[in-house]
Structures are given as C-alpha cells and as structure tokens.
Amino acid sequence: MKKYDVVIIGAGPAGYAAAMRAVDFKKKVALIEKKQLGGAGIHHGALWSKTWWELSREAFSLRKHGEALNTGGVQFNFKKLKSEVQKAVQERMDQLEHHMHNINVSIEEGLFEYIQGNAKVKDPNTVEIQNFEETTQISADYIIVATGSRPRLLPEIPIDEECIFTSDGLDKLEEFPKSMVIVGAGVIGCEFATIFSNFGHTKVHLIDKGDRILPFEDEDVVKVIEKNLEAKNVLIHRNSRLIDMRKEGQMVAYTLEYTDGSKEVFRVEKALVSVGRVPRYENLFESNMDIKIDGRGIIDDLTQTSIPNIYAVGDITADISLVNVGELEGRFAIERIFGKPERPLIYENISTIMFLSPEVAGVGMNEIQAQNSGLGYKVVSIDYSCIPRAIAMRNTQGFIKIMVTDDEHQKILGMRVVGEHASSAIQAVALLISMDRGIRELAELIHPHPSIIEGIQECGRMLLGKSMLKPAVLRHAMVCKTYEKGKYKDLIVV
Ligand SMILES: Cc1cc2nc3c(=O)[nH]c(=O)nc-3n(C[C@H](O)[C@H](O)[C@H](O)COP(=O)(O)OP(=O)(O)OC[C@H]3O[C@@H](n4cnc5c(N)ncnc54)[C@H](O)[C@@H]3O)c2cc1C
Ligand SMILES: NC(=O)c1ccc[n+]([C@@H]2O[C@H](COP(=O)([O-])OP(=O)(O)OC[C@H]3O[C@@H](n4cnc5c(N)ncnc54)[C@H](O)[C@@H]3O)[C@@H](O)[C@H]2O)c1
What we know:
Layout: E1 2-9, H1 13-24, E2 29-33, H2 39-42, H3 46-64, H4 66-69, H5 78-101, H6 103-106, E3 112-116, E4 118-123, E5 126-131, E6 134-145, E7 149-151, E8 164-165, E9 179-183, H7 187-199, E10 203-207, H8 219-231, E11 235-236, E12 240-248, E13 251-258, E14 263-268, E15 270-273, E16 277-279, E17 293-294, E18 297-298, E19 310-312, H9 323-338, E20 351-354, E21 360-364, H10 367-372, E22 377-383, H11 388-392, E23 399-405, E24 412-418, H12 422-425, H13 427-434, H14 439-444, H15 453-463, E25 478-484, E26 487-490
Parallel strand pairs: 1-2, 1-6, 2-3, 6-19, 8-15, 9-10, 9-15, 10-11
Antiparallel strand pairs: 4-5, 5-6, 7-16, 12-13, 13-14, 17-18, 20-21, 21-24, 22-23, 22-25, 23-24, 25-26
Helix pairs in contact: 1-9, 3-5, 3-7
The structure holds flavin-adenine dinucleotide and nicotinamide-adenine-dinucleotide.
C-alpha cells in the first residue's frame, strides 16, 4: 500500500490550499478529487458566477448609457456569453493543473500526487479510492477532509436541473429565460437576480422565507439593493410563503400564500432554488468510525476532528462557507500538523463581498450581529455623494458604515460598504481589525485621491470629531450615533 505523510480528500479551494502548504513543509502529499479540480471555487460557484456577474455589469452599463455611448437597444447573445464564462473557468483550471503537475519538476520529485477518484476513509490511516472499476487503498499519517458542500434541496420542490435548477445545474441553460423565479433571496439568489436583471432579457421574481431579501444583512444595506433590483423590474414577493411549485408543460407554476390567507399562482419559464448549502459527507467514512458530525457539518476544534489525526477544512465544517475561509483553514490545518500555525485561526476579520448592484463589501460584524450580541456601539456613516471619486464615477449611490465600541478605545467592530469599488475599500479596515488597531490609525492614513477609501478615512475622522465635512451641516449624508439597549441616540450637535 502506498504511504503518504498526508492525504487530502477534495481539490476545491480548501483542499488545494492545504496541499500546497504541505508542499512547503516538503511532505509527501496526495490530493484526491472525484470530479473537477477547483471544486465550487471554480465550477458552478465563485469564479463561474463572478464571471457572469462581471459580464452582466458591462451589459447593464451599455443599457444604462445606451444613448450617450450610441449602443441603445443592444441585445445580448446568451451562447456567446456562456462561452466566455466557460473560457474563464477553463483558464483557471488549466492554470491550477499546470501548476500542480509541475510541482514535482520544479520543487522536488515525488512530493505531490494528484489522484482522480472517489475517496472513502476506511480507518484513521487508510483511504480507499474508487476510479471507474478500479479500487485502491493508500495510507497516511494524517488525513484532511475537504469535500465541500452542495445545494440544499427542498423535498416539496421537484428540482430536475432542466426547468427547476440549483446553482449546480444552472449552466445547462441555453438561452436567457423570459422569466425566472428565484427561491431563497440569500447571497446566491440575490447575485443571480442581479445577473439576470442586468442583462434585461429575463423578468426575475424573488422569494424568501424571511420577510425581506438578504434577511441576515442590515436594513439600510438591503434597502439600496432592493431599490436597484426593483428598478430593473425584479418582482420581490413580500409577506408571502411558497406553498407549491410544480412543472406545467414547459412552464413552472408556483403558488404563494399571503399573510391575509389569500393565494396567488404565478407561471414562469424557469426556477432557481438557492436556499443554502449542506456539507457533503455521505459515504465519506466507514460506518464504524466515530467522527462527530451534525447537520451543519463535521465538528472540529481548530480544524482537528474528533479523530485526532483527521482534520476537516472548508465548507464541510460547521462554519462560514467562503473560498477565503476554506483556504485559511486548509493552510492552518497543515501548519498545525507539521509545524506551528503562524497566526491563530480567527474569523472576526474575514472580508466578504456580495456581488450585487451595487457590490456590498463587509468585514467584522454588521449591526444585526452587534445588536444580537448585546453590545452597545457607536456607528458612523457617510453617503457616497460626499466622496469625490463617486461623483467622478457619476454614481453616488451607496454608503460606508463603521461600527466601533462605545468607549474611549473605539475598537472597530465591523464595517459595511455599499457602492462602486466597495471591495477595494475594505482592506485597510480588515487589516486594522486583525492588528487590533483602532480608528486613530485609520483617520491618519494617507489615501490616494480620488478614491472611495477616502470616505472610510472621513468616517474615522468623524468618530474623532475632526472630519473635513461636518455632519452637523450634511445631516442628510452623514450619521453619527450610538446604539444601546434597543435605542439609537444621535451624537451630532447642531
Ligand atoms: C454559486 C456560488 C457562488 C459563490 N461565490 C463565492 C464568492 O464570490 N466568494 C466566496 O468566497 N465564496 C463563494 N462561494 C462559496 C465557495 O465556492 C465555497 O465556500 C468554496 O468553494 C468551498 O471550498 P471547499 O474546498 O471547502 O469545497 P468545494 O469547493 O465544494 O470543493 C470540494 C471538492 O471535493 C470533492 N469531493 C467531494 N467528495 C469527495 C470524495 N469523496 N472524494 C474525492 N473528492 C471529493 C468535490 O468534487 C469538490 O471538487 C460560492 C458558492 C456558490 C455555490
Ligand atoms: N459573494 C460571496 O461571497 C458568495 C456568493 C455566493 C455564495 N456564497 C456562499 O454560499 C453560501 C450559500 O449561499 P445561499 O445563497 O444558498 O445561502 P444563504 O444562506 O445566503 O441564503 C439562503 C436563503 O434562503 C432562504 N430560505 C431558506 N429556506 C427557504 C425556503 N424554504 N423558502 C424560501 N427561502 C428560503 C433563507 O432565508 C436565506 O435568505 C453562502 O452562505 C455563502 O457562504 C458566497
């Protein structure tokens, strides 16, 4: 039986990151993948959907500025767009493949092996791999499980990936549907509502079981996103519950029940169900193995599972499902096994972007989370209309909001940026949170001009009472208040 220092199951972002970190330690590593290299980081997931989003943004810009750019009435070709998305997916996969296959040539012979097949953990040191008719076993000192997640299904919805899709099947579409209902207005649902409505060929309907879209996000953020979706003709169903969905010939019929008890039936061409994701661990462990798992995933203590030489990283674990988190955990697990982690595994300063219209970037807590944790805090915000770069972009929709502790330290708790270039504006704050630094550093940093990040600096200055623009004058655009025990108090003195 072939023996490795570490065997990693699943070559998505978490598994790939772990494998590459093991190479740094000059360990003999096998990376096993049953389907496609890159997992949901590339296919039907992050890169794939972000390529669609980028294309849809350009399409929307052409529609919006049609008259000025002389591109009025432009039609978009689904097949050509889809082929561009496929090129992006292929490009990234080729790059990772090339990189992977040359590790042994460029670094050290025999260090790394990529094995195609379906893996099962037979005992704490043995993994069985099934590839077509062939079954082999390999052994390892350590095993890292990085098998990711898949879309959550609802038993009452007949998903067939032809008419009623999950994000895993959506690339089977051959044309823009004329109409589409999206069930689940979380991140995936709202990103696809943005994409389809940007192209303008699809009437999108959006339903969530919560009473608004993005139920986990702050109301002021959601308001901007809802306004833009509705401006692009998206129908957001409110105060309603999906009670039935079925195929009727070539159409999908769904029934909503409203809070007053009345019902209404809608017919659309296609449906997308995006009601969360579930960890993928079916058949992964021999039944006699005592691995602790709950509905949210494998239970781990800083990536180590209940079986000491087996680690779990990425979406398979019961925490945040993001590419950057999977990579962080994959690298951490290897450092923990073969060395000493360079820094503790903390999730407080994880940055995220939701690719909507406009984009929403965040780091740390939002107000819902701060309030749920019982904290009193100070919050400042500045509207994009006060930021010269936004004025130059001719798009001043959006705002920057920072929450800090309500004491003399004013420790940064979190931030949300809603608007163009939001993603590039949050990194400075993410860094400050991770360095446990406060708003003084933020207020003193010199930023390029004109840039969106100048708005963040202005928020820092506002907290110190020395902003360039005075909130007492620009009351419609600048906010400075405290929150405690369910109440806001305005801090702007006029
Ligand atoms: C539509 C969509 C958009 C997203 N957009 C973003 C985004 O913009 N930013 C972001 O940070 N995150 C995004 N995500 C989330 C992100 O894709 C995941 O968090 C990330 O891919 C998880 O990485 P992972 O390695 O844990 O799992 P995965 O990427 O799921 O990879 C797991 C791999 O393991 C393989 N595998 C499973 N079982 C076995 C087995 N028994 N044997 C061998 N191999 C096996 C699978 O085939 C798969 O390739 C998105 C997800 C979706 C679905
Ligand atoms: N930009 C990004 O970083 C990005 C993009 C896409 C996905 N992701 C990751 O993928 C994960 C999964 O995304 P997702 O959108 O599937 O999950 P989600 O948790 O973001 O949203 C699921 C939504 O479905 C709703 N819902 C649940 N059951 C329902 C029902 N029966 N009827 C109607 N609505 C229902 C929930 O209220 C929620 O709003 C995210 O949590 C995120 O970690 C990240």
